[in-house]
Every structure is written in C-alpha cells, then in structure tokens.
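Propose amino acids for all 125 sites.
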C-alpha cells in the first residue's frame, strides 16, 4: 500500500463528515437536535487530534531515521501528552458549558475511530 498521508486524512475526514451528517439527521428526526452541537464539537476535537498524531509520528520517524531514537521517543511522548491534554481541556470546557452536552461530545470523540474502522473493513474486501 503506497498511500500518501494526505489521502488517508482526506478519506477519514470525508467519512467523519458523512457519519456526522447521518447522525445529525437521526438526532434531528428523533427529537435530540440539542445533541448535534456536542456531536460536531467532539468530532472536530477528535479529527484535530488525529491530524496532530499523524504530524507527530511523521516528525518522529524523520528523527528516528537520522539515528536519534531518544529525541524521537521524547517527541512521541510530548505529542501523546499534548493530544490528551487537548481532550481533557475540551472535556472540562464541555462539562462547565451549558451549550454543549457531554454525552454527544463523547460520541463525537469516537467518530474518527468509527471512520477508520469503516475504511479498514471496506478496504479489506
């Protein structure tokens, strides 16, 4: 598989948007339209973390190739803690906020994971 990271990111983004639209329609039809904001906010945070992870891994791979594994492992750990700090900060903001609800936000955080699973199972056929 000789894929460009930008191709993967764009395919995942298309699937996240498609899933978001589908779930938003279901929420609107079933009377849970107040959940749509939380769902999209969680999806945006999740996709931003996915982009950060891909950039950090690309940087770490370049550093590891230049035979500096300690610097590479530090970069990976810093990126790991940064991504989880972003999620923690957004969870605190959602918990304090009256605009965004917590449950749909947490569901939105899993949108990228679901999109990746869909992409994997569709490509394995």
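Proposal:
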């Amino acid at each position: 598989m000789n894929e460009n990271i930008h191709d993967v990111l764009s395919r995942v983004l298309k699937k996240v948007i498609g899933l978001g639209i589908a779930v938003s329609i279901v929420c609107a039809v079933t009377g849970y339209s107040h959940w749509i904001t939380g769902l999209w906010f969680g999806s945006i945070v999740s996709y931003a973390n996915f982009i950060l992870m891909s950039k950090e891994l690309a940087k770490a791979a370049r550093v590891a190739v230049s035979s500096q594994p300690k610097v590479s492992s530090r970069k990976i750990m810093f990126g790991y803690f940064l991504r989880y700090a972003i999620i923690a900060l957004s969870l605190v903001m959602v918990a304090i906020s009256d605009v965004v609800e917590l449950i749909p936000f947490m569901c939105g955080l899993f949108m990228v994971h679901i999109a990746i699973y869909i992409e994997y199972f569709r490509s394995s056929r």
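DSSP finds five helices and no strands in the chain. The chain has a mean pLDDT of 87.
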